[in-house]
Amino acid sequence: MATFLYKLGRLAFRRRHFAALIWVALLTLAGVGAASAPVAGSSSFSIPGTEAQKAFDLLESRFPGMSADGATARVVFKAPSGEKMADKENKATVEKAVEVLGTGSEVTSVTDPFKVHAVSKDGSIAYASVKYKVSGMELKDASKDALKAAAQDARHSGLTVEVGGDALQATPETGSSEVIGIAIAAVVLVITFGSLIAAGLPLLTALIGVGIGVSTITALASALDLGSTTSTLAMMIGLAVGIDYALFIVSRYRAELAEGREREEAAGRAVGTAGSAVVFAGLTVVIALVGLSVVNIPMLTKMGVAAAGTVAVAVLIALTMIPALLGYAGRRVQPAGKKSRLLGGGRAAKKAGKPNMGTRWASFVVRRPLAVLLLGVVGLGAAAVPAASLQLGLPDDGSQPTSTTQRRAYDLLSDGFGPGFNGPLMVVVDAKASDAPKTAFSTVHDEIKGLKGVVSVSPAAPNRAGDTAMITVIPDSKPSSVTTEDLVHTIRGGGAGIKAETGATVLVTGSTAMNIDFSQKLNDALIPYLALVVGLAFLLLIVVFRSILVPLKAALGFLLSVMAALGAVVAVFQWGWLSSLMGVQETGPIMSMMPIFMVGVVFGLAMDYEVFLVTRMREAYVHGEKPGQAIVTGFKHGARVVTAAAVIMIAVFSGFIGSSESMIKMIGFGLAIAVFFDAFIVRMALVPAVLALLGKRAWWLPRWLDRALPNVDVEGEGLRALDEKSREEDRERELAGV
Q1: Cα–Cα distances in Å, from 473 out to 75, 144, 512?
Q2: What letter would DSSP give residue 108?
Q3: Is the CB of residue 655 less than 8 Å from the CB of residue 177?
Q4: Angle 596-601-604 (CA atoms, 0-180°, nearest 5)?
Q5: Contact 515, 591 (CB under 8 A)
Q6: Which band of pLDDT confidence, cut at 50, 70 and 90, is reported for residue 350?
Q7: 398-407, 415-424, 500-509: which has the minimum mean pLDDT?
Q8: pTM assigned to the model
Q9: % of the chain beyond a pLDDT of 90
Q10: Whole-angstrom Cα distance, residue 596 to residue 692?
C-alpha cells in the first residue's frame, strides 16, 4: 500500500492542476445539487419491530386520513389571578382564537376546550389542540405565523398564552461557538507548523471536504428522507477528521523535507507513510459509523452512512489534494524545525539539539510505566463512576429552555392537569379477530382504569369499521419517569390475558411509548454493535500492526475512555455539574442513542490516534530499534502532531456545544471530552506504559498468522526497497561511467 500511495502522492504533486480541478468540480456539482434540491422536511422517525411502531402502523391503516405523523400544537391559556377560564370575557377570547386557528389551510382539526372538557379542575387553565396535515418541518411559514398571531391576539386580552407541540419546531442553530472552534483549530495549526501557508492547507481541504459532503447530503435529503441532524453530524465529524488527516500528511511532508528530499519526493513519501495511516484510521471510523445500521433504526443508519461518506471524502482529499496544494505552495512550506519569517523564523535552530517535549515525556513513561498505568486507569475509572447511574430517554418540551414558549406550555399543562398529561399513552385495541369488538373495547378500558398510576382513561374511540379503537391514558407521572415506563410494561403485560379472554390485541404507542421502545432497542443492540465494530477494527489493526497484543490494548483503552466520557456526560447533563457553563438549562435523562453513538464514533476517532502514534513506533521497531527506544522515537516524531490533532478535534466538537438542539449539544460535549480522555490519557500515557511493560512481546504474532495476513506495508518498508534499488542503479551508472 505504501508504494501505491507513494506513486499517487507524486502523481497528484505533478498533476496538481488536474487534481485540484477535480475537487473543485465536485464541490461545484454538489453545491449546485444542494441549491436546486427541494427543501427537505423532517426525517421520519420509525423503530421497526417494536410494539409502538406496530401500533402506529396499525393506526395509519385503520384510521385513514387521521395524519398520524402530522404536526400538533397545544395552545394553552391561563386566566389572570382570581379569574376563571369560564368567565365570559376569557371564554370569548378562547373561542375566537379557536375559530381563527381553524381557518388555516393546513389545519385538519381544532378542539374547543369548553366542548371537550379541556379545562383544569380549578378552572384556571385550558388548552386547544390543533392538528395539521403535514409534519412540523414541512409546515409553511404562513401556518406558523398564524399560530403565533392567534396566541398573541389572545394575550392582548390579559390571558397568559403559550404554544406547545412540534408545530413551532425550528431548525437547530449551532451558534457562533462553531466558528470559534474552527478559529482555535487555525491557531493550533499555525503554532504546530510555524507557517500560515502550511496551517491553511488542512483547513482549506477540510472545508472543501465538508462542503462536498454536506452539500451532497442536502441535495439528497428530500429523496432519502434525511433530517437536519444528519448534515450537522456529518459537518462535525467531517471537519474534525478532515483537518486531522491533512495535518498528519503535511507534518510528514515537512519531516521529509528536513531530511533533504526534493519536494515531489517528499510529497510522495508523506502520502506513502502518513497516508497509509490515514487510510486505515479513516477505515476504522467508516466501519464504526456504517456499523450503526445493525441497530435497525433507519434514522440512525442514515446518520451513520452520511457521516461515513463525509469521512471517506476527507481521506481521499488528504491523499490527493494535499500533495497538489503542496505543489502550489512550493518553498512557502518550510521543512520541519523552520518557521516563516512572519512567525519568528530562525529562532528554532538555536534549540535544535534539545529533546522535544514528546521525547522527554516518552522517556519518563518508559522509566515509570507501572506508576503511569495505574494513575491513568484510576483517573479514568473515577471519571466513569457517574455512568453507573445513567438514565436514558429522549428530549421533549420539558427539556427545552424555560425561555421557549414550548417549555412554558409544558409547565402550564403540568400545573393544570398533572405531570403525566404531557406524555399520554395511546392504547390501540385491534379487535378484528374478536367476536365482540365492543366488549373487548370496554374490557380494555376497565382493566386500564383499575391500574395504579393512571389518572384518567378516555372512552374507546372506534374507527368506522368498528374493529379497532383508540384509548388515551394519562399517567400520574411525567413522561420520562421510571413510573411511567413501568405503567407501559404493565399495560402490555396484561395484553396476553385480554387476548385470551376477548381475542383482541392490545398495543401501546404514543411519543412516550416510542421513547421507551427506542431506548430498549438501543440497549439490546449495544453489545452486538460493540462486538461487530470492535471485532472488525481488531482484525484491521492486526493487519496494520502485525501484532495481537497491540490491537487488544487499543480496544481496552477505548473502553476506558468511552466509559469515562459517558460518566462526564451523565455528570453534566443528568446531575447538573457545570451545567450553566455548558448552557444546559434543564437536566434530565441522557439521550437514548448517546451510548451506542459514542461507542461508534469515539472508537473510530480513538483508533485514529492509535494508528498515527503506534505506526511510528512500529516503523522504528521494524527498522532495528529496541522496544523502549522505538516508543521514544514514535513520540519524538508523532506526539506533537497527535497533540495538535486532538486539540483541533476537541475545539471543533466543542464548537457544537453552543447548538440550540439538546442532542447536538450533548453529542458535541460527549465527543470533545472523549477525545480529551482518549488522546491525552489513553494514547499519550497508557499506550506507551503498556508497550514499555510488554517489551518485545507487544509485537508478537504467531508465524502461521503472519504468513496468512496480507502485507499492507504501513511502515513504508517498500519505500526503503525503492531507495535501495535507486542507490544500486546510481552505483551501476557510476561504474559504467568509470
Answers
A1: 20, 29, 11
A2: E
A3: yes
A4: 125
A5: no
A6: very low
A7: 398-407
A8: 0.79
A9: 27
A10: 32
